[in-house]
Structure formats: structure tokens, C-alpha cells
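Appendix B, example 12.
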Amino acid sequence: MMEQKGLAKAYILALIAITAWGFSFIWEEFLIKNNVEIFTLIFERMVLASLILWIVGGMLGRVQKIRKGDMKWMFLLGFGEPFIYFLGENFGIKYTSGVMASIIIATIPLFCTVVDRFLYKFRLTLPKVFGCLLSLLGITLFMLEKAGAGSSQLKGILLLLFFAVGGSLVYSYTTKKMVSRYSAMTIVTYQFSFGALLFLPFFLLFGLKGLTPEFFSFGVQSKIFLLAVLCSCVCFGLWAYCTGILGVTRVSIFSALIPLVSATVSFFLYPGQETFTALKVAGIILTIMGVIIVQIVKDKQIQL
């Protein structure tokens, strides 16, 4: 009974994180499409998140001392997410859209399945292959009406695939190693601290010019604050906790819901930011269905 309650709690927290992240793609698109400098945006988000986590973690006594030899893994966490991941996500949004970015991110479980095949010798069953193909078809349908964007659209998708998805995979499998040793608060605190450190040179080189009067307006700062506190501090902490309870592959199924949240938010709160046709809606649905199929099929380990 206690185990079931723990699983139910993890599922609820994962849904909360996914809902907030669905909003984050639309907030980021709003900021980027309104000419907020990307490195200025990311660096402030990292610094705010780090400061809040250290202050709250210190007050609660929840930031643990890192064991000798584990600091390199904490650095790798920060390198995967937020550094590599946010480079791909934000520049990907710049060249595509928030909803398109959320669809690409939703395919992370497909890549987890491939990685599991090589790391843990899980068999790629026919249903899993079918789910992968279904998601790829969904992405293709969504992209068809954006084909006129040409190389810019392709650049955004490649950035999302190689940086955002790649960074997320590094983060997910490193988190799996760390959750048995450290609390979610400790992991997220060091993760964003290293992220802020890695983004500092880019902020100094490219982000200082973004410190304009418009950048300090309420509309911009309120969204950055929400991204830092809700989508970084809270959601990454919840995700680290849920990964420890559910595992990388099982918790990743919730990422399939991100495009649904992003599309709904874009449609109702920011009309005109993204147009939705039958083809795009079909693409979102097929992508979600494919990811869910991949996740609900039980893994079978290859006997060596």
C-alpha cells in the first residue's frame, strides 16, 4: 500500500512538472520572438534559480555535501541540463516555434529506448518500432505546413535534436546514477549552479547587449522569474525525485504530454502565436500516441 501511494505521488508530481514545462515553451517563444537576447535570458534564469535553491536549501538544510569523486557527475548534470539542453531548446525555438520545440522534446523517450538497447540490452520489439515510426510520422505532418521556412526551420529542428535531446539524455542517465546518493534539492542546486557558471562566458560575450530597458520591463522579468522559479527550481526538483521513484524510461512517458499543454496554452492564451490546422493537430496526436506506445510496451532484456 505504501509503495502504491509513493507511485501515485510520483505520477502526480510528474504531471505537475509537465504542465509547467508545457507553459515554459510558450513563455520562451514569447520572449525570444520579442527580441530578448537568448544568452541574457538564459543567464538570468540560471542565476535566479541557483540563488533561490542555495538560499532555500540552506535554510532547510537540504543541500548535502558532495562526496569525493561525485563532483564530476554533478558537473556533467549541469553540462547536459541546463547548458547543452537550453542552448538547443532556446535557439531551436528561435528558428521554429514553442510548440514545434515541445514536440521534438516529447520524443526523448524514443531516444531513451535506443540508448537502453545498447546500455542495458533491451530488445527493440515490433510495437516499440511501430511507436517510433508513428511519432516520426507525427513530427513530419506538423512540419509539412512549415516547409516554407526552409533552412531556418531545419536549423531549429537540428538544434533541438542534437543539443536539447542530447543534453536531456546526458542529464537523465546521470540523474539515475545520482538519485540514490543525493536528494533532489542537492542535485538541482548543483545542476543549475554549474549551468550558470557554464553560461557566464557566453553572457559576457553576447548577453551584455541584451540588458536594455525593455529587458527589465515587468512583462519580460515576470516570465523569466516564472521560468527560473517554477520551471527550473520546482520542476527539475520534481523530475529528479520522480526519476528516482519511477526510473528514466517510465517517467519519460509524461514528456509526451508537453506538446498537448503547449498547444493548448498557445491557442487560448497567445492567439496568433501559433496557427493550428487539422494537419498540425494530427501531427501532435500521432507523436503523443507513438511515445505512449513506446513507453507502455514492457522491455525485454536480451539474454546473452
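DSSP finds twelve helices and no strands in the chain. The chain has one domain: 2-296.
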